[in-house]
Amino acid sequence: MLAMLGNLLNPVTFSVMLGGCFAVATMQNGARGAGRAFRALSALWRADPDRDMLLARATMTKVDHLANLRGLSCTDRVKAANPFLALAVRKLADTENVDRFEMWAEQALADRTARHGQAHKFWNAVADAAPALGMAGTIIGLVGMFAGMDDAAKIGPSMALALLTTLYGVILANFVAAPIAARLTDLSERELMWQHELCRRMLVVARRETAPVRRASIREVA
């Protein structure tokens, strides 16, 4: 068993395959896209959109209550651990124009969607490139095998190269890159869902607090 596994492990061939896949994906998505794709790997383990959604809803309840009592300018007293949530609360506290806050929310969410998409595209590109590079290695191995038919000692290494590159291509595509892309896509969709919900609720609060009737009633109370 160990001997068989040893035959399947060829660090040089695997490194060439891996480097080739990353090079193709980088050419397709650019160095910035590659950087974002590797930085996004940390989200595979630490991201928890369901937890963030519950925290955002609880924070928004506090923001709504404080805005109703003291006005929008006081809502930045609510502390938020999530960076996007904290930024959205500050923007809401500073807003004097609902349309301006709405434009910020739309642009911020669009930018986040684009950044997430770059990471997904990179790993999907790796998944697409791996089988193609594996087939290229298979062809190279077969050419070497047929070219060395007169020497039996050359047939084995060439055949091994042909089969290992196909194997590595399948592994990289279906057991590494494609699962990473699918996981990141799922996390992104769930994260953006609660962020859209948060911005919609903030817009409701902002419209309520900046309405002429609301401002008039506040002045009367004062």
What brief labels describe this structure?
222 residues, mainly alpha, rod-shaped, Flag_MotA_CS, transport, MotA-like, transmembrane
Explain how this protein is built.
By secondary structure, this protein is mostly helical. It has one domain (14-40, 47-221). Helices cover 87% and strands 0% of the residues. The chain has 8 helices and no strands. Helix 2 runs antiparallel to helix 6. The N and C termini lie far apart (83 Å). The relative contact order is 0.15. Residues 215-222 have low confidence and may be disordered.
Apparent shape: rod-shaped
Biggest pleated-sheet summary: none
Number of DSSP-assigned strands: 0
Count of distinct structural domains: 1
The mean pLDDT is 89
Q: Which structural class best describes the helix and strand composition?
A: mainly alpha
The fraction of residues assigned to DSSP E strands is: under 5%
How many angstroms separate the termini? 83 Å
Gyration radius over CA:
27 Å
Unreliable spans: 215-222
Count, helices: 8
- Fraction in helix: over 70%
Helix and strand pattern: HHHHHHHH
Keywords: Cell membrane, Flagellar rotation, Membrane, Transmembrane, Transmembrane helix, Transport
Subcellular location: Cell membrane
Organism: Sphingobium subterraneum
Transmembrane segments: 12-31, 122-147, 159-182
